[in-house]
C-alpha cells in the first residue's frame, strides 16, 4: 500500500526535475532565435557567459557602476539586425516567444519611427530576465539580460 508520505517524497524530486527541464527548454528556445540568425549577413550577435561576468570586477572598465552591475549578470545576449528584409521575421519570432512564455511588457515607447519594448520575467531568487526590443526603420536590436538586476538597473543603463 502506498502511503501519502511516500507519494509526497516521490513527487518532490519529480516536480523539481520537471521545472529544471522546462527551464532548459525555455532557455534553449530563446537561444534558437539567436543561433538561427548568428551567421546571417546583416546580423551581428554577442553572447557573454557567466564565466566572463565573474571576471568583470577584476577588469578595469572605467565605470565602477557598470562593473558592479556586470558582476550581478549571469547572461547577456545581443542580436543586431541591419538588414530590413529580415526585421519583420526576427521581430515576429521574438514577440511570439515572449508572449508564449509569459514575459510582462513593462515599458513600451513609440517615438517617430522608433519602437522600444522592454519585457521582464522573474526567474527566481532575486534574478530577473529583461529583454529590450528596439526597432527602427532599417535596424532591429534585441538585448537579453539575466541576473540579480532590477528595473532600476535597466533604467540606469537606458539613461546612459
Brief sketch in words of this structure:
The protein has 160 residues and is α+β, with helices and mostly antiparallel strands.
Give the SSE layout.
Elements: H1 4-37, E1 43-48, H2 50-55, H3 64-71, E2 73-81, H4 87-100, E3 104-111, E4 114-124, E5 127-136, E6 139-147, H5 151-159
Antiparallel strand pairs: 1-2, 2-6, 3-4, 4-5, 5-6
Helix pairs in contact: 1-4
Describe the structure.
- The structure is a single chain.
- The protein is an alpha+beta fold.
- It has a single domain, classed as TATA-Binding Protein (2-Layer Sandwich).
- The chain is 44% helix and 33% strand.
- The chain has helices at 4-37, 50-55, 64-71, 87-100, 151-159, and strands at 43-48, 73-81, 104-111, 114-124, 127-136, 139-147.
- Helix 1 runs antiparallel to helix 4.
- The termini are far apart.
- This is DUF4252 domain-containing protein.
- It comes from Hoylesella buccalis ATCC 35310.
Share of residues in helices = 40-55%
* Element-level helix/strand string: HEHHEHEEEEH
Largest beta-sheet details: 6 strands, antiparallel
Identify the CATH class: Alpha Beta
Q: What gap, in angstroms, lies between the N and C termini?
A: 64 Å
What is the CATH third-level topology name?
TATA-Binding Protein
| Strand adjacency order, main sheet | 1-2-6-5-4-3
Tally of separate helices: 5
pLDDT < 50 stretches? 1-26
Annotated CATH architecture = 2-Layer Sandwich
Radius of gyration: 19 Å
- The residue-averaged pLDDT reads 78
